[in-house]
TrEMBL record:
SUPFAM superfamilies noted in UniProt: Cytochrome P450
Species of origin: Absidia repens
Family: Belongs to the cytochrome P450 family.
Cofactor requirement: heme
Name of this chain's protein: Cytochrome P450
Record keywords: Heme, Iron, Metal-binding, Monooxygenase, Oxidoreductase
Binding site for heme: C459
GO molecular function: heme binding; iron ion binding; monooxygenase activity; oxidoreductase activity, acting on paired donors, with incorporation or reduction of molecular oxygen
Length: 518
C-alpha cells in the first residue's frame, strides 16, 4: 500500500467517523444550550412572577408562588378540599394565592363584583365535567351558549309554571310519608312507638321521585323500591365526577374506553322523549317545555333529542342531591337544637291544612318566617358549593379598585367562608335561624349569602328547590316526632364535598314516630 492510498483511507475514515462524531457533539451542545436556555427562562419567569408579578403581593403558602400541587395530593381524604380552603383563609385572610394563577377570595363585595358586576365566565375545570364535549347549563364555560340555553329552559322554572307541578310533588310526598310509616313499623325497637328511619336515604329517594315526576314525566318509585337504574347510575356518576378534576388523565381514559356511556340510560331517555314527541297528549312538566322548543320559529332555539337528554339529566342531578341534602342538614341541625324544632312545629301547626287535604299547599308555607329562617340558616352553614365557585378573568380586573387581577387568573369565590365570616355574621358558627327574622337585632348580611350563586349563572331552579324543601320539611315536622341517635349525630360531623355537600356515610338514621295528634 502506497502513501497515497493510506492517506485516502485515513481521510475517508475521518469524514465518515470523526466528522460525524464532531457533528453529533455539536448538535448535542446546541440542544443542551437550547434546553438550558428554556429552563433558565422558565425559572426566571417563575421567579419574576413569584416576586415581581401582578399577584406577587397576594399572600399564600410559599409553594403557591411557584407551582400547583395536585388536589389528589392536597385534598385527602377525598371530599375535604373545602376544609383546606377554609384553613388557608384562617391563616391568610380574605384573599390568598392557591397557585401561581389561582386566587381565593371571600370578601362579600369582591364576590359580588366577580359574579355579578364583572360576570366572569366559569373556569376551565367545568370543561372536565362535560360528557364528550357536550355542554349543558351547568358545565358550559361559553357565556353566549349559556345565555341562549338559559333563555330556552327558563320557562320551565317560572313561578306560574311551578304551581302546576305541585300536584306531582304532593303525590311523591304522600308516598314518602307511607314509606316512613312502614319503616317505623318495621324497625320499631320498643314500646314507645319509635322506629329507626334512614332519613338521609329517603330524602334522596323522594327528591329523585319528585324530579323524575316533574322533569321526566314519571316517578322512579324510588321511595317504594329504593332501586331504579337511572338514579343509581346518576349517583355513581356524581361520586366519580370529582375524580375527573383531581386526576385529569382519567378524562382521556373515560373518553377512550367509553366509561361515561350508559346504553341503558340513553335508550330509556330516548324512548321516553320519542314517545312524548309522537303522542298527541301533552303533560305539563319540564320535559314538555323542552320538547316544545322543537317547534320554535328560530332554528337555534330547537333542542335536539340528545340535547334534551343532557339537560333533563342535569335537572335530575341538580334537583335531587342539592335539595335532599339541604333538607337532611336541616333535620340534623334541628335534632341538635330541639327548641328550634319545637318552634318550627308550632308555626306549622298554626297553619290549618285546607279543604281536608293531606298536605299543606305551598302557598300556605312559602311566607312562613321561621320555616324560611330554618332553610336559610341551613344553607348558610351547609352551602352546597362548599368548595367555592370558580371563575376565570377573561380580561384584566381590579378587585375593589386596588387589587389587580391579570387576564387568565382563576378566581375562586369561597362562599363558605363569606357565610361564616364574623365581620358579616354575629356568632357565625352557631345555628341561629332567629337571625333571619324581622325581630333580629342585626339584619342578615344578604350581600354575604350566596346559596344559589348570583349573576347570570345563578341557579335557574332556585324557586323549584325552595318549594320542594318547604313542602318536605313542613311535612316531616308536622307529622312526626324525632329522637336523635347519638352515634349518628357524631358521624354526621364528617361532611364531604363531592359535586354537592353531603355527609360522608351518605346515610343518617333517626328514631321517628307518628305524632299522637295525627
Amino acid at each position: 500500500m502506497n502513501y497515497i492510498d493510506l492517506y485516502n483511507k485515513i481521510e475517508t475514515w475521518y469524514h465518515t467517523h470523526a466528522f460525524n462524531h464532531a457533528e453529533k457533539d455539536s448538535l448535542k451542545r446546541i440542544g443542551s444550550a437550547v434546553a438550558i436556555t428554556y429552563i433558565s427562562y422558565k425559572i426566571t419567569s417563575k421567579l419574576y412572577n413569584a416576586y415581581f408579578g401582578p399577584l406577587s403581593d397576594v399572600p399564600g403558602p410559599f409553594y403557591a408562588k411557584f407551582f400547583q400541587v395536585p388536589s389528589a395530593i392536597t385534598d385527602r381524604p377525598q371530599g375535604t378540599r373545602y376544609r383546606r380552603l377554609m384553613s388557608l383563609h384562617d391563616k391568610y385572610g380574605i384573599i390568598y394565592k392557591l397557585d401561581p394563577s389561582t386566587i381565593v377570595i371571600s370578601d362579600k363585595d369582591w364576590i359580588k363584583e366577580i359574579l355579578v358586576k364583572d360576570d366572569l365566565p366559569k373556569a376551565p375545570l367545568y370543561n372536565k365535567l362535560q360528557d364528550d364535549g357536550k355542554q349543558t347549563l351547568f358545565n358550559t364555560t361559553d357565556k353566549v351558549f349559556h345565555k341562549q340555553r338559559r333563555r330556552i329552559v327558563s320557562p320551565a322554572f317560572a313561578m306560574k309554571y311551578l304551581n302546576s307541578l305541585e300536584q306531582f310533588m304532593d303525590s311523591c310526598t304522600e308516598a314518602f310519608v307511607d314509606r316512613i310509616n312502614r319503616d317505623i313499623q318495621l324497625n320499631n325497637s320498643g314500646t314507645d312507638g319509635f322506629g329507626s328511619v334512614d332519613i338521609w336515604e329517603l330524602l334522596q329517594c323522594v327528591a329523585l321521585d319528585i324530579i323524575g315526576s316533574t322533569a321526566f314525566g314519571e316517578s322512579f318509585n324510588m321511595v317504594d323500591t329504593s332501586d331504579h337504574f337511572i338514579p343509581v347510575s346518576i349517583t355513581r356518576a356524581m361520586r366519580f365526577a370529582p375524580n375527573l378534576i383531581m386526576y385529569p388523565f382519567l378524562g382521556k381514559l373515560v373518553k377512550i374506553f367509553g366509561l361515561n356511556q350508559s346504553p341503558e340510560l340513553d335508550k330509556f331517555m330516548r324512548d321516553l322523549i320519542m314517545k312524548r314527541l309522537n303522542s298527541e297528549q301533552r303533560r305539563n312538566d319540564i320535559l314538555q317545555i323542552l320538547i316544545d322548543t322543537q317547534k320554535a320559529s328560530d332554528q337555534e332555539d330547537r333542542l335536539t333529542v340528545d340535547t334534551i337528554i343532557a339537560e333533563v339529566i342535569l335537572f335530575l342531578v341538580a334537583g335531587s342531591e342539592t335539595t335532599s341534602n339541604t333538607t337532611g342538614f336541616a333535620i340534623i341541625e334541628l335534632l341538635r337544637h330541639p327548641e328550634k324544632m319545637n318552634r318550627l312545629r308550632d308555626e306549622i301547626d298554626n297553619v290549618p291544612v285546607e279543604n281536608d287535604e293531606a298536605l299543606h299547599s305551598h302557598d300556605q308555607l312559602k311566607h312562613l318566617p321561621y320555616l324560611n329562617a330554618i332553610i336559610n340558616e341551613t344553607m348558610r352553614l351547609n352551602p352546597i358549593a362548599a368548595n367555592g365557585l370558580s371563575r376565570i378573568a377573561n380580561s384584566d380586573v381590579t378587585l375593589g379598585g386596588k387589587i389587580f387581577i391579570p387576564k387568565g387568573t382563576v378566581v375562586i369565590c369561597n362562599l363558605n367562608h363569606a357565610q361564616r365570616n364574623p365581620s358579616y355574621w354575629p356568632n357565625p358558627e352557631k345555628f341561629l335561624p332567629e337571625r333571619w327574622l324581622d325581630t333580629a337585632e342585626t339584619a342578615p348580611c344578604m350581600d354575604a349569602f350566596y346559596p344559589f350563586s348570583a349573576g347570570s349563572r345563578n341557579c335557574v331552579g332556585k324557586q323549584f328547590a325552595l318549594q320542594e324543601m318547604r313542602l318536605t320539611l313542613a311535612t316531616l315536622v308536622k307529622r312526626y316526632e324525632f329522637k336523635p341517635i347519638p352515634e349518628e349525630l357524631e358521624a354526621a360531623k364528617d361532611i364531604r364535598q363531592f359535586i354537592t355537600l353531603t355527609v360522608q356515610k351518605n346515610s343518617f338514621k333517626v328514631m321517628m314516630k307518628k305524632r299522637q295528634a295525627l
